[in-house]
Amino acid sequence: MDQSRSQCPILKKKDTVQKAEGKVNENKYDVKPPRDLRSKYLMKMEERKVKERQDEEQRIKDAELARLAELEKPAPDELYGMRVHCWVLVLAGKREVPENFFIEPTTGNCAEAYEFLGIETLWNNSNYWVNMQDCSHGIGDMSYDLGDIARWEYMFPHSDKPLLMLPGEEEFDLPLDEEEEEVEEESDMPGSWVTEIVIPLEDLQRRCPEGKKTILYRKAKYEIFAEYKMQDGMVARLTEYSDSALTQPISSVEWFKHREDKLETRVTDIVTNKVTEDFGAGRQRSLRQHVYYSNQTGSEATRTMKFDYCARTDGLKTREETLLNLRSIIVIETIF
Q: Does the pTM exceed 0.85?
């Protein structure tokens, strides 16, 4: 599946993470700050200039983004709306699922409702439903109550038609009259003509054909490797670029497994040459993080090392080395 025009989900998660801001507790006994004697008129004029400058910068930025979006706009598709694809629909109600969502089977990522033009049919292991609703405006307002025959026409008569349970509601059996208990004769789904899928353990551990897979996203490239394929233990690498042609890398993230030195991740800022390495528990001298610059070597290198001070006898937590200074932070715990 071509994902070169979509954002990498790993970068999307990183952009949506927001740090919780701590609330400042106001104390009526705190010393009040000195009175501000600056001219309010001058401050207002300065704020106006700053706002005008920010608006101009934002206007230029929006124009540049619009130009890039126009260049990246795909060509007209003659088969738009005529292709048929299959997704996995997870209905809300059971297992604490708050809302309906879709899963793209080729990637395993969640798909938003606005990505779909319409739904023709739904099926599971027991029945097959045909959508009778209008999809000319998308599926945003579509009902997924499969028990409503006005919206979903079933193919095989079945007594236990699935209903859309709302979160918090309990399932219970409604009393039915003897006449209502009589339903049409049930029919079973025909047997599958597909043989049972058997994946050997070797192929499962390979994760992808030939043990390597490359996925291209918008301004990013994600590489997946099978365990023990790479000599350095790398299992994944994400490279971020500043252009859509993927020619100017700006940062990379590498994931590792089964390394003797317990290295787990390495984040490299290609612009500043800053490298951040994170280690798992059990590393020699209890080192957990090492920050350095790849263009600096020898005694002139600037580095910061963070340790698991609870596992060290000297309580060393942080060690910062520069050309002129050496700074160590030691945590001393007193047990009464």
A: no
